[in-house]
Tubby protein homolog isoform X3
Amino acid sequence: MECLRRSYIYERKLAAMGISSSVSYDDLSDEEPESESQPVATPTATTAVPVAATSSSRPSSSSSGSKKPGTPQETSNGASKPNANANANATGPPQVDIDNLEEFVLKPAPQGHTVKCRITRDKKGMDRGVFPTYYLHMERDDGKKVFLLAGRKRKKSTTSNYLVSVDATDLSRGGESYVGKLRSNMLGTKFTIFSRGVAPDSNMAMPDASNMREELAAVCYETNVLGFKGPRKMTVIIPGMTLDHERVAIKPRNDSESLLSRWQHRNMDSILELHNKTPVWNDDTQSYVLNFHGRVTQASVKNFQIVHDNDPEYIVMQFGRVAEDVFTCDYNYPLCAVQAFSVALSSFDGKLACE
């Protein structure tokens, strides 16, 4: 009953802002894509969507070992890698309980189902041209859209800092609906995704770290100091999964224990390294393309698919443009909604050394 009451309050608040928790995108016009820093080709009628129109190669992964489809592969401490049994194109509604929204957005996607979502970017208002608000809605089989998350960049931060909330009307760090944040380095090339909780150097941190924040993911964009044009190259580092399909809690007490530091020093215990899938050159469109199976319709340098090197056909996440301010964001096990949404937010952020 409490969940229904909160849901009703959200609906009223969203309606007052001109936003619906069940959004219909049928009325959205297909406007021209916003200008990108590199040329992209016009999408054809096929499901392969252009990413960018020049050569590139993906950064290599240090992960090794072969993996048969459908066989979980364990890391040295028992954390399992993405399972190919969770078919990225599986049909049917996710078998999950969404009555508790905060629990749902932090829970890994159910194995065997793709959680299909859309992100809308709201630029309306006095300062939303510079600080737009982003909304994540889950698409249901009946055509309705269910609100999951909202995110917005904080205005007075030295680096890019996005707050993520389960309440579209409350994007404050002190609010009850705050579930995480995304923070970048000075160049905007490396991002860390945190859950709700106190920092390790806080006076409020408990000795057993029970109230400390977790690192849910890290995103690293390859720098482009020579000015070469081509598809973006990104690495996503996430905590591993236990054999019980629970996410390993990563609670660094200092920078050397962070996901980014461990990845940079090749300390891969309990963590997984993912990459954007390498686009394929298409002579007809003179561009690099990816097959989004109809979920992406407009060319953009921001379009990407995330995979593990041991199973590149299993799409852990995919993101791409369908209208000027509308993007699909689909994710599979082992990602949760907060991880997928935050990775998508990192792609919107300006990157001085990558463009």
Notes: DSSP finds four helices and 15 strands in the chain. The radius of gyration is 19 Å. The helical segments are 2-16, 101-106, 259-264, 337-348.
